[in-house]
Amino acid sequence: MARKKLDTLTEQMYYVLLALTEERHGYGIMQDTAALTGGRVIIGAGTLYALLSRFEADGLIRLSAERDNRKYYRLTEEGRRVLEEELRRLQRQAADGERVLRGGGGA
Question: Which keywords does the record carry (predicted)?
Answer without folding.
Answer: Coiled coil
